[in-house]
UniProtKB/TrEMBL annotation:
Residues annotated as domain C-type lectin: 49-163
Keyword Transmembrane: yes
Residue ranges of the TM segments: 24-43
UniProt xrefs under InterPro entries: C-type_lectin-like, C-type_lectin-like/link_sf, C-type_lectin/snaclec_domain, C-type_lectin_CS, CD209-like_CTLD, CTDL_fold
Keyword Ribosomal protein: no
UniProt-listed SMART domains: CLECT (SM00034)
Gene3D superfamilies listed in its UniProt record: Mannose-Binding Protein A, subunit A
Protein name: C-type lectin domain-containing protein
Molecular functions per Gene Ontology: carbohydrate binding
Keyword field: Disulfide bond, Lectin, Membrane, Transmembrane, Transmembrane helix
Entry superkingdom: Eukaryota
Amino acid sequence: TDSETDGTWKWVDGTRMTTRDKLISLHLQTFLGFFFFPLTGCLREWMHFNGSLYYISSNKKSWQESRNDCLQRGADLVIINSKEEQEFTRNFQKLIWIGLTDSEKEGIWKWVDGSLLVTSYWATFEPNGVPQRDEDCAEIKNFHFPNNWNDESCDLERVWICEKKLAT
């Protein structure tokens, strides 16, 4: 609200909205047609979008270490199940681990919740499963394109997105 001083926006806990908060919100609204809002308290570093909370890491880890971090936060790696969610995650413009793997059986891609991949956003010629690289984990790679998933070695270090579904 800016009820105290017109143009000075504050969160419900009284903290001022940062320039980063404003820029991200404006960018998402302008290019994607939606708003997000960071939360207060211990969830302040999370963003809300379409019924889920999202945490975007600032450091890099392997796919499994990234997943472990999400689980410690009471979440899991992001499961992308709509075009809107794909656009939301793509907007961060980084190499990002998502919660998709074919580590159980080569070529059978499953989300971290065990569900099979139905709708995908693979980049052209992906997944290509280069054998000597053991590419069993999915990342967002070419964020300039709508279809930008790439299969990659799970041991490489990337930033990641955790998703925590909100109760409906």
